[in-house]
Specification:
Layout (H helix, E strand, L loop, with lengths): L13 H14 L3 H22 L6 H10 L5 H10 L2 H8 L5 H13 L4 E7 L2 E7 L3 H21 L6 E4 L3 E5 L1
Amino acid sequence: MKRKTVSVHFRLWDDVYDSLQMEARSQKVNLNTLLNQVLSTHTRDDLLFEEEGFVKMTKNTLRAALSLIPDDKLSELGRLAAKNGPDARMLARSDCITLDTVLDELRLVSRSGWYSLNEGKRAGKEVISLIHNLGPTTGPRQSVVLSAYVTGLFALVGVRPKITTTSTSVMIEY
């Protein structure tokens, strides 16, 4: 997609410029593309995450937290996560909650690092895979939480997707 651009001039600290140049080389993109990605992520995601009270944590901390939750409470955690906040975020970005806003919410949360998201089609149905990497012990527990979270989000628009889980992923067909 070709987007309209504007030409601007910025002054950057030398060390920031050097870091950006190194990162652009490592990602094999030009500096302009990298700056657009960084600024877009900050203005589109990071400010919203901050306003919402998102907490950044390491995967090791998430593993530890999930290991402390009793098995019978994991789904409840996912359902609560779907009830507390996503509806307000979706309404803040759109005038109503629709299937598209639910999908945008899943994309937004994927950019926070909880999982990676892949979209496709299979046998005429839309398929979304949420892939996480929490290891053999905690991975299945994260799949339970994500499955309940996704079920709660789709319920907001009256959709009951088919959900399949593995120890490292949640697949959603609708």
